[in-house]
Amino acid sequence: MEILRLHIQPFLRRNALKIGIISILAFIALRKDLSFNLNLNTPATPRQEAPAVPEKQVKVERYTEGPDQGPGFSSSLSATDRFDFSGAGGGRAQPTAFGRLADLNKATVEQYIERFGKVAKQEQEKFGIPAAIILANALLHSQAGEALWAKEGRNNHFLIPCTPDWQGEQKNYDGRCLRQYHNAWTSFRDHSFFITTGTYSPLQQIPSSDIKGWAEALEQKGFSAEPELARQLLAVIDRYGLE
């Protein structure tokens, strides 16, 4: 044993560096092998699939069913059918004077006709203007006396504007100067003068029986800013039986 120790110790001293390097390499190799074996024996973790992204849901617009639209109602309308382009810029068109008048309480309109029917007939007899035209004109432009300018103290039943020769009272409504009268009868009489003199004097040549002719002449002469004045006047006459 002594002889073996004497031989081994010098060998170890001479080769200590080599032995150290070999030991380190062996340790590293052993560690890698151990890690490799462990990985082989460990059950593989199942790969987690990324959660499926749900398809984007497209919201489908549906029109609310009205009282006249049953389950079979189809909403497959064209763009122009779905929207109202009747007014400027896509807005709704303003109702005509006839439309506003038709929306009034029926009793209000009937009371107005009863109140001024005789006045219209008297003006026809004196000036030759059809009583139906006078009354229809008053109904349209005063809204059966409900318009602000036709109320008591103003009494303009025909929207007659101020003119340079007008010497009576006047008042502005939304930037528009209108004549004012002490009573409704004066308004009817001034209307008769207004549409039988000056620019409107040719209307005196139209027979009082020609209601359509009078309506069209008033429109052509620009009596009112209302669109299709003749059609509206004739519609009022027909609706309320003014003939």
What does it look like?
- Keywords: Hydrolase.
- InterPro entries: Glycosyl_Hydrolase_73 (IPR051056), MGlyc_endo_b_GlcNAc-like_dom (IPR002901).
- GO terms for molecular function: amidase activity.
- The protein has 243 residues and is mainly α.
- It has two domains: 2-39; 97-239, Lysozyme, CATH 1.10.530.
- 48% of the residues lie in helices and 3% in strands.
- It has helices at residues 2-14, 16-41, 79-82, 97-103, 106-127, 131-142, 184-194, 211-220, 229-239, and strands at 170-173, 176-179.
- Helix 5 (106-127) packs across helix 6, helix 5 (106-127) packs across helix 7 (184-194) and helix 8 (211-220) runs antiparallel to helix 9.
- The protein is rod-shaped.
- Mean pLDDT is 77; it is low at 34-51 and 53-91.
Present the secondary structure layout:
Elements: H1 2-14, H2 16-41, H3 79-82, H4 97-103, H5 106-127, H6 131-142, E1 170-173, E2 176-179, H7 184-194, H8 211-220, H9 229-239
Antiparallel strand pairs: 1-2
Task: List its salient traits.
rod-shaped; 243 residues; mainly alpha; 2 domains; 48% helix; Lysozyme
**Please, how many helices?**
9
Query: Assembly state here?
Result: single chain
CATH class of the largest domain, anyone?
Answer: Mainly Alpha
CATH topology term of the largest domain:
Lysozyme
Global geometry: rod-shaped
Number of strands: 2
- Element-by-element helix/strand order: HHHHHHEEHHH
Query: How large is the share of residues in beta strands?
Result: under 5%
- Rg, rounded, reads 50 Å
Q: What is the terminal separation in angstroms?
A: 152 Å
Outline the low-pLDDT stretches.
34-51, 53-91
Give the class from helix and strand content and strand pairing: mainly alpha
Share of residues in helices: 40-55%
The CATH architecture of the largest domain can be given as: Orthogonal Bundle
Major sheet size, sense and barrel closure: 2 strands, antiparallel
Order of adjacent strands in the largest pleated sheet:
1-2
Rounded mean pLDDT score: 77
Number of domains: 2
GO molecular function: amidase activity
Keywords: Hydrolase
Protein name: Mannosyl-glycoprotein endo-beta-N-acetylglucosamidase-like domain-containing protein
Domain Mannosyl-glycoprotein endo-beta-N-acetylglucosamidase-like: 118-241
